[in-house]
Amino acid sequence: MKLNNIVAFAQQIAPFETAAQWDNVGLLVGSPEWEVDRVLLALDITPDVVEEAHQKGAKLIISHHPVIFSPLQTLRPDNAEYLLAKYDVAALCLHTDLDRAEQGVNTALGAALELKNTTLYPDDFLLVGEPMESCSADRFAAFIKEKLHAPSVRFTEGMVTHVAVSSGGGGEGVELAAKYGFDAFVTGELKHHQYLYAKQHRIAAFDAGHFSTEDVVIAPLKDKFAAAFPTVEFLISEANPCPYRAV
Question: What's 102-213's CATH class?
């Protein structure tokens, strides 16, 4: 399969032009003319992930986080970018365009948390819905931890009846949750002042970790590509686990 066919399908799922202006998405490494028969999917393209792709014979890595984001200051043998070039492995990165997509990251997060009656607000990087049943914040925190396989969940107190989710580093969405009248907010990173804001506005805010709130998209994304390209093998990386533990 020509790589350009896979890139074109990715453009249908998460149009590159919908990414934030500061973002870097699309085919960042490799040629559209390359032939691909095995693809590795991962949240991040790390040196370990590139080595895994090489060992498994994958000529393309599809990731959420862009492998080239800030200007490269160095290019060394232990850099992921260096290894991609060394092994002729392409990188297709779907970031904020996948956050905004109809079947993207926030949709996957909402599905993992079993939210019902959901609505996506792509411009705000927000999905809103209702839990299967209203509950206390501590009960919902335990539910989040279980469903996302999160090492930990930090939260503020409150009742959970209407939930907004914004995956990854979406802490600023707590203000939008208050604006839209939701009493619960789930994200991957909350700063101190955002916890204070949530407490002041009586929002049960949950910080389940950047990785755990975004990695939920990888399996459904793999299934979409596999259904579209049955002659290509799509694998989920085993070398890109959550990078931290909690006690």
Answer: alpha beta
